[in-house]
Amino acid sequence: MPKYPKFAIIASFIGLWLNSFLSIDFQLFVGFILILSFGILHGANDLALIKNVNTYNKVEKFYKIVLYYIFIVIIGAFLFYIIPWLALTLFILISGYHFGEQQWNKLLKTDMKIVKFLYELVYGLIILFMIFTFQAEEVQNIIMAITTIEVPIFIFLLILKIMLILFILLSVFFYFRIKRFKNYFLKELFYLLVFSIIFKASSLIWGFALYFIFWHSIPSMMDQITFLFGKVNFNNFKLYFRSAFVYWIVSLIGIGLLYFIFKDQKIFNALFFSFLASITFPHVVVIVKMFGKK
């Protein structure tokens, strides 16, 4: 695991190098393939995680949890249908926290849970709003397609600046409270620089896919495999894949139906991110519980 960031950096810059040779359409194709493979797979094992996070005396209790999980997914999708601007706002906030938690959970050891939560949220929102700022017009079109609201482009940069200021202030706070924070902070600053280069030089889907796969999904799968099976190796990955396979296939079928029904690129992009959001809501809850138990 300590060597993984080196692999992620190399993979990211190979992706940037390929960016110069691939057409936009091919970037979209490969980007979606990456998201649909490792990206969706990393969230397809939630039910196995639930079994390990909670101890049940009766099988019926587990199935109740499964029903709650499905209910949250349906509520998320329904919210996108009736109040899309609220659903999208929640998706951005929850995804921001989820990205920040994955990056900082092992590094930021403190009893100040509220401040830690805020720091992880701010860090994740910096990542998202870097994407929004560097790909402002395309993001604006997707938001318009989802919510029918035209968000002024300057808003993305304004929120990014606010998040950066909060990030610096909270970092100063942790600098004086946690001895080893300086080492982690400098590395994370470097990673943010890497992310900014990726998002600036790539198209929206390609840049998002490079971050989402190499910096979030694969590290998350490694954490989940460690939690479920004790350590990361190829045999345990096969067990993880076998456990997640059915739910992964169901998710792919759902996305496939969206594509064949709505082939228009703008509408599909909007619905695709809406679909990701509806399955992200319960996934984040499960991962928070997993980190809590660890």
Structure in words:
- The structure is a single chain.
- The protein is mostly helical.
- The protein has helices at 4-19, 24-41, 46-53, 59-82, 84-104, 113-134, 136-147, 153-175, 181-201, 204-229, 234-261, 265-293.
- α4 packs antiparallel against α12.
How are the secondary structure elements laid out?
Elements: H1 4-19, H2 24-41, H3 46-53, H4 59-82, H5 84-104, H6 113-134, H7 136-147, H8 153-175, H9 181-201, H10 204-229, H11 234-261, H12 265-293
Helix pairs in contact: 1-9, 1-10, 2-10, 2-11, 3-12, 4-5, 4-12, 5-6, 5-12, 6-7, 6-8, 6-9, 7-12, 9-10
Task: Briefly note the structural class of the backbone.
Answer: mainly alpha
Largest sheet: none
Distance N to C terminus: 16 Å
The count of helical stretches stands at: 12
Q: Please give the oligomerization state of what you see.
A: single chain
Radius of gyration: 19 Å
Give average pLDDT, whole number: 81
Beta-strand segment tally: 0
Give the helices and strands as they follow along the chain.
HHHHHHHHHHHH
Share of residues in strands: under 5%
User: Which descriptor suits the 3D outline?
Assistant: globular
Low-confidence stretches: none
- The share of residues in helices is over 70%
Q: What can be said about this structure in brief?
A:
By secondary structure, the chain is mostly helical. 84% of the residues lie in helices and 0% in strands. The mean pLDDT is 81.
